[in-house]
């Protein structure tokens, strides 16, 4: 079953572009990454899914139900961590969490304690006295306390130290094993790589790629490094499929997409002292998509 399904979801803020024709399907049990540079449209998509804002056109379903019409019912089974959390500063953490829990028809008190322990969060403190990272932890506990079937995280790790990030990822993996579907936006490639099964790449409001992390890795791109005794002319690399060329006197590096035999043949004219052909890092692949594809 598709837990999330959007059809040509489009949102304009007045005349300015939010997202355009976003169509994606997230299957039950997946950890799905939503990645793109600043302003690409990640938060807009998430806010539209949660009916915090309404689309200009297109549709979105969660658990097979319409996000606008059945929003209240959907939200009972969704945990959401916004990118920025704002609270009534005067409340104690536990009071805030109990208040959040009161919206669900189940006793969440044990789960609140468990989560606070895992995230090392002091429930007795006032929100006012918490650091930015600790406020984020409150948001995490708030998003997970009702054991939701779908967890939507909007850039969740900002403000968390590396140890807490690790604990948070472990927690998300556990929630996923429990059966929860995870949808999370990020521009931190490393965390997407560590956590996700599949990823959608969004740029300028449009989805440019949806692929499994596995097949992104097994792509047809290779990173070449060429060294020579002689200065290398730029014209020697005027070959179809080459991008990201960096040339410094007798060394060249670039990304190549295409038939490896063709490029080896064409590079054959160069008097090489070294040739290295490697898999690009996932970061380089993402950068390629961010920069090249429209
Ligand atoms: N309330 C708003 N009014 C007008 N334009 C908006 C509003 N919110 C977002 N936008 C615009 O919509 C586009 C998408 O923004 P969005 O916040 O969804 O991007 P994002 O991918 O979440 O970025 P970031 O990684 O910086 O959080 C941007 O061009 C942004 O300027």
From TrEMBL:
SUPFAM superfamilies: P-loop containing nucleoside triphosphate hydrolases
Transport listed as a keyword: yes
Key words of the record: ATP-binding, Nucleotide-binding, Transport
Domain of life assignment: Bacteria
SMART domains xrefs: AAA
UniProt domain ABC transporter: residue ranges: 4-229
Keyword presence, Mitochondrion: no
Any one Gene Ontology molecular-function term assigned to this protein's record: ATP binding
Protein family per UniProt: Belongs to the ABC transporter superfamily.
PANTHER family: ABC TRANSPORTER ATP-BINDING PROTEIN, ABC TRANSPORTER ATP-BINDING PROTEIN NATA
Name of the protein in question: ABC transporter ATP-binding protein
Protein's organism: Vallitalea longa
């Amino acid at each position: 079953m598709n837990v999330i399904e959007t059809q040509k979801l489009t949102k304009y803020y007045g005349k300015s572009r939010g997202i355009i024709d976003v169509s994606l399907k997230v299957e039950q049990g997946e950890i799905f990454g939503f990645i793109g540079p600043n302003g690409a449209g990640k938060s807009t998509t998430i806010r539209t899914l949660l009916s915090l804002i309404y689309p200009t056109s297109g549709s979105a379903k969660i658990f097979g139900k319409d996000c606008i019409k059945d929003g209240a019912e959907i939200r009972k089974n969704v945990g959401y961590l916004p990118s920025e959390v704002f609270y009534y500063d005067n409340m104690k953490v536990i009071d805030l969490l109990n208040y959040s829990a009161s919206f669900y028809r189940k006793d969440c008190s044990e789960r609140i304690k468990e989560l606070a322990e895992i995230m090392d969060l002091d429930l007795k403190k006032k929100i006012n006295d918490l650091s930015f990272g600790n406020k984020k932890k409150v948001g995490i506990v708030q998003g997970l306390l009702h054991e939701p079937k779908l967890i939507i995280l909007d850039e969740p790790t900002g403000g968390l130290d590396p140890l807490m990030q690790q604990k948070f990822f472990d927690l998300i993996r556990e929630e996923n094993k429990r059966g929860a579907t995870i949808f999370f936006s990020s521009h931190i490639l490393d965390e997407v790589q560590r956590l996700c099964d599949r990823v959608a790449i969004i740029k300028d409001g449009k989805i440019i790629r949806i692929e499994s992390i596995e097949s992104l890795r097994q792509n047809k791109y290779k990173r070449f490094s060429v060294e020579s005794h002689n200065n290398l002319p730029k014209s020697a690399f005027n070959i179809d499929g080459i991008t990201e060329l960096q040339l410094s006197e007798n060394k060249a590096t670039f990304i190549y997409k295409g038939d490896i035999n063709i490029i080896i043949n064409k590079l054959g004219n160069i008097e090489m002292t070294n040739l290295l052909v490697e898999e690009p890092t996932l970061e380089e692949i993402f950068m390629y998509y961010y920069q090249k594809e429209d």
